[in-house]
Specification:
- Helix content is 47%, strand content 17%.
- The protein is built from two helices and two strands; from the N terminus they run βαβα.
- Helix 1 links the parallel strand 1 and strand 2.
Length: 70
């Protein structure tokens, strides 16, 4: 990963039992180290489910509209 990597939004539920939140934090750290624009959005009580997915899709649409459709 380099600073030329596209802006990245990471949406993760803090109650995810399939992929631990720590994995999203590791990914966030890699983006920071590489100088990539990014955001980690943690969904309280969200798991690997609609509680995280539904708001995540809406946030992703806005994120990409703001950063990639300029």
């Amino acid at each position: 990963m380099t600073a030329k990597f596209p802006p990245t939004l990471i949406v993760h539920g803090d109650g995810d039992k399939i992929v631990p939140l720590q994995q999203a934090k590791v990914m966030e750290g890699a983006h920071t180290k590489a100088g990539v624009e990014h955001q980690l959005d943690v969904v309280p009580g969200g798991g690997h489910d609609d509680k995280t997915f539904r708001p995540g899709v809406a946030k992703a649409v806005e994120w990409f509209k703001e950063r990639l459709l300029k």
